[in-house]
Automatic annotation (TrEMBL):
InterPro entries: PPC_dom. SUPFAM superfamilies: AF0104/ALDC/Ptd012-like. Signal peptide: none annotated. GO terms for molecular function: DNA binding. It holds the Pfam family PCC. Residues 1-129 form the PPC domain. This is DNA-binding protein. It comes from Caballeronia glathei. It comes from the Bacteria. Keywords: DNA-binding.
Length: 131
């Protein structure tokens, strides 16, 4: 396992920046070990809902985890608002960094991740192959 620490800056799209990092560093299989920071906008898709909910304001990233491949990301995140209410779900594009996001990515050089539609779920699901 190899690690890649990242710091995202204000205005970055969290999901897009992580997908870009995977491509820029040619990581065949990676996952997010942990992420913290803040957002001004969070786009979270809740379980069983087709469209993401948009949260706006001063949001703290409490947890961030998921898998990353050249085919895209599958990320889940929990955030809290200024009143301490916690929201969590699937990370969609449009999560905008407010002050910083500090993310630690782990790369698994012996594997290759891809996302292929699974007929049972109907979604692009993770496929793990040895390299």
């Amino acid at each position: 396992m190899q690690t890649l620490p990242l710091r995202l800056i204000p205005g970055d799209d969290l999901r897009a920046a992580l997908e870009d990092a995977v491509r820029a560093h040619a990581l065949p299989a990676a996952f997010v070990l942990q992420g913290i920071g803040s957002l001004s906008v969070a786009q979270l898709r809740y379980a069983g809902v087709d469209r993401p909910a948009e949260l706006r304001g001063d949001l703290e990233i409490l947890t961030l985890a998921g898998s990353l491949s050249a085919d895209g990301a599958h990320l889940h995140m929990s955030v809290s608002d200024r009143d301490g209410r916690v929201f969590g779900g699937h990370v969609a594009k449009g999560c905008i960094v407010r002050t910083t996001a500090e993310v630690l990515i782990a790369s698994l050089p012996g594997f290759r991740f891809s996302r292929e539609t699974d007929p049972r779920s109907g979604f692009p699901e993770l496929v793990v192959r040895p390299r």
